[in-house]
Amino acid sequence: MNVQEKLAVLADAAKYDASCASSGSKKTREGSQIGSTEGMGICHSYTPDGRCVSLLKILLTNYCIYDCQYCVNRVSSDTPRARFTVDEVVSLTMQFYKRNYIEGLFLSSGIIQNSDYTMEQMIAVAKRLRTDEHYGGYIHLKTIPNASQDLIDEAGRWADRLSVNIELPTDRDLVRLAPERKSLKSWPRWAVFARRSRKPRPTRKPV
Amino acid sequence: MGGIREKIEETTADKKAGLKTRGFAPAGQSTQMIVGATETPDVDVLKTASDLYSQQKLRRVYYSAYSPIPHADARLPGQSPPLIREHRLYQADWLMRFYGFQADEIVAEKDRNLSLDIDPKLAWALANRHFFPVDVNRASYEELLRIPGVGVRSVKRILSIRKHRNLRAADLRKLRVAWNRTKAFVLTADHNPSVHDLDRLDLKSKVTTKNEQLMLFDAAGSAVTGEV
Predict the structure, then answer these.
(1) What does the record list as coiled-coil region(s) (chain A) (predicted)?
(2) Domain limits, chain A
(3) Which end of chain B is more exposed for a tag (fewer CB within 10 A), N or C?
(4) Is the pLDDT of residue A39 over 80?
């Protein structure tokens, strides 16, 4: 499978991730030689359902060991599979950025082997972009549920934004549709916290 | 993860103290949830989101309308929810973050979902008419933010203008507030006859637009088939 074919499979698989912001970062990081980030951003183009695309939005791989029912990449699905190497994602990002197709990289992944291994691979992409390519543009990494705190710290060092999908709005939905995730232990700590507490909040100051 | 928030707070605190930091996720963190894969109503979606904003200090929560996938499980619905539902959730999200609304007051409908035909702020105004009319020359910032058709920027402009002069209906229109939605809910320095509509039962039809937005992408389809 060549890079174009992989790109077709893995970019298509990433279309379910709804994040189009390429801004919100403070300022371009020091020492970068190409690319910049802004507090406010613009969007480049729109998909047929009205979403805008300004990021190279791809999965590192759509192989996955989980079996979440709502997900097209679940282990029991017969979707075509592909996997990028770290080098391939780095070179794609740089090539696209230099051609002004994208404002940044949005990288997510199916889970292969285990959470830590997958997270390490994604961090490697961000790190290579920052250190080897001196890329200062926007990078958004999905953190993998269950990855160790050290890896999260490392990811935050290279990425502009981190995100964790809470997937479904309530616990009940989650137990029904995402069997591997049903144990709250496998959840990122804050998601569990947010689910459990339903205390009345102090009134917020309007902005 | 909880770790991400702690680490972000730690880094900002260090930075404030004048220490040199390596930087940690300067654009913060976000999340997304799938809407319409289960029958969970919008009010629960919004409550979860508001918890995430207040406790985890997320920058954004993305709502993603469930789209059917091939060979899906029987427990999943066969079709995606209307895209407008996602749009209404984002509008409600903005009301929570920038307009001082609480998650449970936004959803007024009996089935605990946002109404699809009118925007959530207008829906709130129609359900809470005792709050109106709001006098644009006297009301506080928080009260002004609740008027349908008036956004954060307009409110700021109103506040800065009224230091110097009283605002009339024509001034509001000149500020480009959505006057059709606004007119029944505000008192201005001059006579505003539309305020009398506030108690009418058919107020909803008076403040909603009759024109229907044509779809750009339907047109592409009909161009191919030749059917209208």
Answers:
(1) none
(2) 3-165, 170-207
(3) C
(4) no
Q: Which residue does chain B place closest to A174, by CA atoms?
A: B38
| Both tokens assigned to B108 | 């007024």
**pTM of the prediction?**
0.79
> Residues of B with CB below 8 A from A189's CB?
1-3
Q: Do A149 and B3 touch (CB under 8 A)?
A: yes
Buried-exposed string B181-215: b where 16+ CB fall within 10 A, e elsewhere: bbbbbbbbeeebebbeebeeeebeeebeeeeeeee
Tens digit of each residue's pLDDT (9 = 90 or more) over B176-186? 999 999 999 99
Across-strand partners of B34?
B64
Residue A161 and residue B25: Cβ atoms within 8 Å?
yes
Integer-rounded Cα radius of gyration of chain B:
22
Has residue B191 got a pLDDT over 60? yes
Q: Do B25 and A156 touch (CB under 8 A)?
A: yes
Contact B75, A176 (CB under 8 A): yes
For chain A, the C-alpha Rg in angstroms (whole number) is 18
